[in-house]
Amino acid sequence: MKNIRYFDHAATTGVKEEVLKEMLPYFNIEYGNPSSIYGIGRSVKRAIEGAREKVAKAINAKPNEIYFTGCGSESDNLAIKGIAYALKEKGNHIITSRIEHHAVLNSCKSLERDGFKVTYLNVDKDGLINLQELKETITDKTILITIMTANNEIGTIEPIEEIGKIAKKNNVYFHTDSVQAIGNIKIDVQKMNIDSLSMSAHKFYGPKGVGALYVKEGVPFIKLQDGGHQEKNKRAGTENTAGIIGLGKAIELAYKNIDEYNDKLQKLRDYYISEVENKIPGTILNGHRTKRLPGNANISFKGVNGGDLLLKLDEKGICASTGSACNTGSTEPSHVLVSIGLKPEYLQGSLRTTFGYENTKEDIDYLLSSLKEIIQ
Ligand code: PLP
């Protein structure tokens, strides 16, 4: 991957060397099944429990509140449908926002087909939900609020602690999709009154195909997949042991130097945004200017086709995206950009650049000069 400038860390990240090193023995040396009772099974089980402790520590949860899954999408499905079905006798109303990832939106759609009612909250021009509207939307049938911690396209960070307070006061469970937030901002599930939270290892320099779900002790939820009794009978299937070990190491590393890391990303992001705004005419910053992920910049270029822009950037060895990687190939405008009310002339011209620890100012300068040349 020589001569590649990678600015798409929200799509995925490369596994860190230290993470890979910890994972490798679990493919062919420590290959026992963690459910087996003999020594090599038990030692793998112990390693998984070690990873569980690391995840719990990172978000201030208890290890028995962490469930390993196959990805962030699975964590969202398990949390939202699992809690909704467990509580269907109590109520059938769920509240979410219009700018959630499709793992959440489509889980809600699936529940609607099964008789649940879902309110999709509007967001303002920066992508923030309105807390007053949230309060007014809660009824005695509301069982769950699911609002993302940070948006994957525009990077806006929602007022999670306030949402947690509102949920608690109204006796409603609160799930948050933290797939973009974990490893990038600090989360304390106790302080923030979060009942359930999704994460995915490949967004914080861990491997793909492994995620985790936190569900607070006592929060009712049912399993969606039948099979064995793994993960406290909530997620059947032999564990992805190497993946889980990798997730554990990756989250530990992510939070070890989080302040320093964020400081660096924020400086790169703000430098990039100000240079684009000052030097390229007809741009709009999408998402909140300050309440945004440290490494996210999403800018629309008036009258530019984002798809064409990506191809031209690719020719220069630059990896970026127009929005969510999951929607690549779709000709529909992004539901997030539509929801923040972006004008049509800006809708197709968005460029999401998400920076990571390996990016340098020199990389950003190369991106800026390439952009200026292409757009001119
Ligand atoms: N939620 C958000 C906010 C995401 O950004 C993503 C992936 O981009 C997901 C959920 C899905 O995660 P995964 O790719 O691990 O299924």
What can be said about this structure in brief?
The longest helix has 22 residues. The mean pLDDT is 96. The chain is built from 14 helices and twelve strands.
What would you say this structure looks like, in words?
With 376 residues, the chain is an alpha/beta fold. It contains 14 helices and twelve strands. The protein has helices spanning 17-23, 25-28, 39-59, 72-86, 102-113, 131-137, 160-169, 230-233, 241-256, 258-279, 306-315, 335-339, 344-347, 361-375; strands at residues 5-6, 66-69, 93-97, 117-121, 142-146, 173-177, 196-200, 211-215, 283-286, 296-301, 318-319, 350-354. Strands 2-8-7-6-5-3-4 form a seven-stranded mixed sheet, with helices on both faces. Strands 9-10-12 form a three-stranded antiparallel sheet. A two-stranded parallel ribbon has the order 1-11. The longest helix is centred in the C-terminal third of the chain and has 22 residues, at 258-279. The structure holds pyridoxal-5'-phosphate (PLP). Residues 71-73, 76, 101, 103, 148, 152, 177, 179-180, 200, 211, 326 line the site of pyridoxal-5'-phosphate.
Write the layout of secondary structure elements.
Blueprint: E1 5-6, H1 17-23, H2 25-28, H3 39-59, E2 66-69, H4 72-86, E3 93-97, H5 102-113, E4 117-121, H6 131-137, E5 142-146, H7 160-169, E6 173-177, E7 196-200, E8 211-215, H8 230-233, H9 241-256, H10 258-279, E9 283-286, E10 296-301, H11 306-315, E11 318-319, H12 335-339, H13 344-347, E12 350-354, H14 361-375
Helix pairs in contact: 1-9, 3-9, 4-5, 10-14
Bound molecules: pyridoxal-5'-phosphate (PLP).
